[in-house]
């Protein structure tokens, strides 16, 4: 396993607008689905909201300075659709675009490349009132939004991420209802998955029409699907889970088709002639978000996949129960390289959530996070040595932040945030990662 990474390897960090910005109703920003969801009693742990979050909207200069101190060469952030287009269509909010212009300017001043993600789950509420991602019209609105952002920021942004983790926001937001918008409708969910895929094709067209020399990717949550036992029922359940979670989004991008599991549902999904042609090949590179594997058992009561998560009880877990399994990163990268023509890949998220509190103003000694990230990079190095074309790695996340339905209970940041004061304090993992970047590899 190489201790150093390829020349010009990109090191960075990632965040998302709703999770860090705050200023939820300032300077003309419209309401989004997470504003509505988090303000609904019982939806988010402890009644937490992203109203203030990390106050990045007012403290972005401080955060850029932290990134410069860390030594990263790339910063993946997302724009808030409702901050730019309050209703999701029609009038543009100049103050919203100005905020992102200032951020992009400061990143360039710090020699950090801005990677702009157009959608990280915060759909304008007025679009959701019309059906949200279950409505094909949202795809067209996304294309218009992409064009607005590309024309406004394209001079300073060359690297674009279309949509973050469509599998997550569709499954948890439209099927299970545990995340915004809180829908539990199978037909809405199925349509939302296709519309999220199609929006990538439409969004990529809009960016390329406005931004010269653009580099366009996405960010898919990929996870090896393992059977709980070696029974035929569990093996088949794992295959269905793989189709549902991974191939449902990879196959349209690289094969222009959906996996067999989706075949009976294409009409319900609303797949129209020409759709798959717009999706296939629409990205220049693949963003991989990796946290853990998925271990499943056969369960006839679960619609479509007939599988349910059933992780081994004795394996170490992150704060809220996710299995610590860094070796899955190598597995998923090798598999993508083998099955999808070895595309150019960037790790757009990788991190570990923990329960952490400051003590006596000393940096948090987050050794378990360092161990997880170090092991992940070791397995990433193995994948590269095996031929996977991985060009960069971005940690989730720069800052502790609002973790969706978990609220502020779980912390992923390299930097500790005191949510009462928004004071930032780098953790031990911050210094560790700075050393990795400086060496371009592991000790």
User: Largest sheet at a glance?
Assistant: 8 strands, parallel, barrel
Count of the separate structural domains: 1
Order of helices and strands: EHHHEHHEHHEHHEEHHHEEEHEHEEEH
**Order of strands across the widest beta sheet?**
1-2-3-4-5-7-10-11
Sheet/helix structural class: alpha/beta
Total E-strand runs = 13
CATH architecture: Alpha-Beta Barrel
Q: What general outline do the C-alpha atoms trace?
A: globular
Describe this protein's structure.
The strands form 3 sheets. An 8-stranded parallel barrel has the order 1-2-3-4-5-7-10-11, surrounded by 7 helices. 40% of the residues lie in helices and 15% in strands. It is globular. The longest helix is centred in the middle third of the chain and has 25 residues, at 186-210. The chain has helices at 17-20, 33-38, 56-70, 81-84, 94-109, 125-128, 137-153, 166-175, 186-210, 232-255, 266-269, 275-279, 328-339, 367-385, 428-439, and strands at 10-14, 74-78, 113-119, 159-164, 215-221, 225-227, 286-290, 294-298, 307-309, 345-350, 390-396, 415-418, 423-426. It is built from 15 helices and 13 strands. Helix 7 packs parallel to helix 9 (186-210), helix 8 runs antiparallel to helix 9 (186-210) and helix 13 packs parallel to helix 14 (367-385). With 443 residues, the chain is of the alpha/beta class. The N and C termini lie close together (12 Å). The chain has one domain: Alpha-Beta Barrel (TIM Barrel), CATH 3.20.20.
């Amino acid at each position: 396993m190489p201790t150093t990474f390829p020349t010009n390897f990109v090191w960075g960090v990632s965040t998302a607008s709703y999770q860090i910005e705050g200023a939820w109703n300032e300077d003309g920003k419209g309401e989004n689905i997470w504003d509505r969801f988090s303000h609904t009693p019982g939806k988010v742990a402890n009644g937490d909201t992203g109203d203030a979050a990390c106050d990045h909207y007012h403290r972005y200069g401080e955060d850029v300075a932290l990134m410069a101190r860390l030594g990263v060469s790339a910063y993946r952030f997302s724009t808030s659709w409702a901050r730019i287009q309050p209703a999701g269509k029609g009038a543009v909010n100049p103050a919203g675009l100005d905020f992102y212009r200032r951020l992009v300017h400061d990143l360039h001043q710090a020699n950090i490349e801005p990677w702009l993600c157009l959608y990280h789950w915060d759909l304008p509420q007025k679009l959701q009132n019309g059906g949200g991602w279950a409505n094909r019209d949202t795809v067209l609105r996304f294309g218009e939004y992409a064009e607005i952002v590309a024309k406004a920021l394209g001079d300073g942004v060359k690297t674009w991420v279309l949509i973050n983790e469509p599998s997550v926001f569709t499954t948890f937001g439209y099927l299970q209802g545990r995340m915004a918008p809180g829908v539990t409708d199978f037909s809405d969910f199925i349509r939302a998955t296709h519309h999220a895929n199609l929006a990538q094709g439409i969004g990529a067209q809009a960016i390329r029409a406005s931004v010269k020399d653009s580099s366009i990717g996405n960010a898919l949550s990929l996870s090896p699907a393992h059977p709980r036992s070696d029974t035929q029922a569990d093996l088949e359940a794992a295959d269905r889970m793989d189709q549902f979670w991974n191939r449902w989004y990879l196959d349209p991008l690289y094969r222009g088709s959906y996996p067999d599991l989706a075949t009976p549902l294409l009409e319900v999904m609303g797949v129209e002639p020409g759709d798959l042609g717009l999706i296939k090949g629409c990205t220049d590179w693949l963003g991989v978000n990796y946290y853990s594997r998925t271990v499943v058992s056969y369960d006839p009561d679960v619609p479509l996949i007939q599988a349910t998560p059933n992780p081994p009880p004795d394996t170490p877990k992150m704060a809220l129960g996710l299995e610590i399994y860094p070796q899955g990163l190598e597995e998923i990268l090798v598999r993508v390289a083998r099955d999808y023509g070895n595309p150019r890949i960037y790790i757009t998220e990788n991190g570990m959530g923990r329960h952490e509190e400051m003590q006596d103003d000393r940096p948090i000694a987050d050794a378990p996070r360092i161990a997880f990230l170090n092991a992940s990079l070791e397995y990433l190095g193995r994948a590269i040595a095996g031929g996977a074309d991985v060009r960069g790695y971005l940690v989730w996340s720069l800052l502790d932040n609002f973790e969706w339905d978990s609220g502020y209970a779980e912390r992923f940041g390299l930097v500790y945030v005191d949510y009462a004061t928004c004071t930032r304090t780098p953790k031990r993992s911050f210094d560790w990662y700075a050393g990795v970047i400086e060496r371009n590899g592991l000790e």
